[in-house]
Design a protein that fits this description.
alpha/beta; Glutaredoxin; three-stranded parallel sheet; 5 strands
């Protein structure tokens, strides 16, 4: 998630489509917690969540890094809305979303799912935002005529 805060392809995608697409970030279990597979303090800011309250607090800490871009208000427009997965990790398990994945839904229909990070790592030059951007470009070129 730091990439959308600090810049990079996710931020570019948000800036390009935020007026036509609702962006939602689902906070999952930590990929690199301080008390687990840590990458140091810069990338591992919190311990693995033991309770839903821990996960909610971690999501709030993330939002506090950039309140102009992120919001915990599920009705916020023109911001990335940050929600949390439950402690059973139902969202992560349903979409193989851990540690990260881009999913595009139209209403209640899932229309696009990016490659899983293990697939992306086989060809790291093809980061998951490339396919998501291509899908959005095609979608809007067909639907804005």
């Amino acid at each position: 998630m730091r990439t959308i805060i600090e810049g990079g392809p996710l931020l570019k995608m948000f800036k390009r489509y935020h007026d036509r697409v609702d962006f939602v970030f689902i906070y999952l279990l930590e990929a690199h917690p301080k008390d687990g597979w840590s990458f140091g303090d810069k990338f591992s800011a919190v311990k693995q969540h033991q309770t839903l309250e821990d996960r909610i607090e971690a999501a709030r800490m993330l939002v506090d890094l950039n309140t102009e871009l992120l919001s915990t208000d599920h009705k916020a427009k023109n911001k990335v809305r940050v929600l949390v997965d439950n402690m059973e990790n139902s969202f992560a398990m349903s979409y193989a979303a851990w540690p990260d994945r881009i999913i595009i839904a139209e209403g209640e229909t899932v229309s696009f799912v990016s490659d899983h990070v293990t697939q992306v790592m086989q060809n790291p030059q093809n980061i998951m935002t490339i396919a998501a951007n291509a899908w959005l470009e095609q979608y809007f070129s067909k639907n804005e005529l």
